[in-house]
Amino acid sequence: MQPATMLSSILRRSGVPRPYSTSAPLVQEEVAVPRPRAGEVLVKIERASLCHSDLSVINGSRVRPLPMALGHEAAGVVAALGSGVTDVRVGDRVVLVFVPSCGECRACAAGRPALCHRGAEANGTGDLLHGTAALTSPNGERINHHLGVSAFSEFALVARESVVVIDDDVPFDVAAMFGCAALTGIGAVLNTARLAPGQSIIVFGLGAVGLMAVMAAAQVSGTTVIAIDPLPEKQRLALKCGADIAGPPEQAVALVAEHAGDGVDVAIEAVGSARVMEACLGLLTRGGALVSVGLPNPEQQLTVQALQFAGTGVRLLGSYMGDSVPTRDIAAYLQLWRDGKLPVELLHTDTRPIAELNEGLDALADGRVVRRLFRMDR
């Protein structure tokens, strides 16, 4: 029997000063456990992890309607089903996906569910795909959903399209990372860039997404994988994840010249910086592709030589959620993990109680963690 109320981590004000352990932007509040409506699923959250997309809402660079129950990367167990949901069972283990795809819009019809128009609209307004926001405070105040998930809670009410059922052999500490970091980083390499055997690739930014990209690139036969990050510990981690060479940003030009000749075939920008995007374009060979994965502050502007696109055939590709098809890709990526080809456990820094969430924001912002996961302890 599920409880009537739950703890949920609510953001009421963005742009608060650091350290977050002191300013405490996320507050644990008691809210009613929502009942699933038609087309919805209630999930008991087992593990949720912090991502820079959460941080960008907290620091105000990604504007979202407040108050909002935060968190978008998680795994859990189905607790209840709304009417019309027949292909998921109570007790199923699931990974949550932060873009619910309607299956009918222009993007979905083109086979690009990560760009679903209706899903993006619902995520932008803090609603769910099949209905308005269902979270409320004890006094009846509307609380918005974060990317259709709101995973820093004991339970999450989501659209059926926001869950992918997984097998019971996948630990929750592993499964949680497949709903965002894996889809985004691996998908950027395999779906967006379509890295081919024998090509070279450079990855800027070795957080969870960048390191997932490194792991994916290492699976492509004969590739040369260069990993770039200012932190030596992340460079060392990249080598464990399959990179051939790792170094700091100031060595990127020299490393490309030594290991990729006149430039790399693919550059992955997972920092969220227009300046880094500009640098990546300068490291491409003729016909190479820059894949933009990070989320720069909206005020940043990209200034590049316009002639290079037609003149040298280089491409600038945006990649949202790795151009993934979650129902297809999560199963495929988990199989690579089972086969020992995706050592995602290397990215799991630790697991902490949800009460330490604000301190975790500081650790993420400082680069002290890759993926810190949280359990929903009371």
Task: Describe the overall structure.
This protein is globular. Helix 6 crosses helix 7 (208-218) and helix 6 packs across helix 12. It is α/β, with parallel strands linked by helices. It has helices at 20-23, 52-58, 106-109, 117-125, 172-175, 181-193, 208-218, 232-240, 252-260, 274-281, 307-312, 326-338, 357-365, and strands at residues 5-11, 26-32, 40-49, 68-69, 73-81, 93-96, 135-136, 142-145, 155-159, 163-166, 200-204, 224-228, 245-247, 264-269, 284-292, 315-318, 348-353, 371-375.
Instruction: Give the strand content.
Output: 25-35%
The rounded distance between the terminal residues' Cα atoms is 17 Å
What is the subunit arrangement here? single chain
Morphology call: globular
Contiguous helical run count: 13
Mean pLDDT: 97
Structural class: alpha/beta
Q: Regions with pLDDT < 50 over 5+ consecutive residues?
A: none
Radius of gyration, in angstroms, nearest whole number: 20 Å
Helical content (DSSP H or I, runs of 4+): 25-40%
Report the count of strand segments. Answer: 18
- Give a quick account of the main beta sheet: strands, pairing sense, barrel closure: 7 strands, mixed
Summarize the structure.
The chain has 378 residues and is an alpha/beta fold.
Topology of this structure?
Layout: E1 5-11, H1 20-23, E2 26-32, E3 40-49, H2 52-58, E4 68-69, E5 73-81, E6 93-96, H3 106-109, H4 117-125, E7 135-136, E8 142-145, E9 155-159, E10 163-166, H5 172-175, H6 181-193, E11 200-204, H7 208-218, E12 224-228, H8 232-240, E13 245-247, H9 252-260, E14 264-269, H10 274-281, E15 284-292, H11 307-312, E16 315-318, H12 326-338, E17 348-353, H13 357-365, E18 371-375
Parallel strand pairs: 4-8, 11-12, 11-14, 12-13, 14-15, 15-16, 17-18
Antiparallel strand pairs: 1-2, 1-4, 3-5, 3-9, 3-18, 5-6, 6-10, 7-8
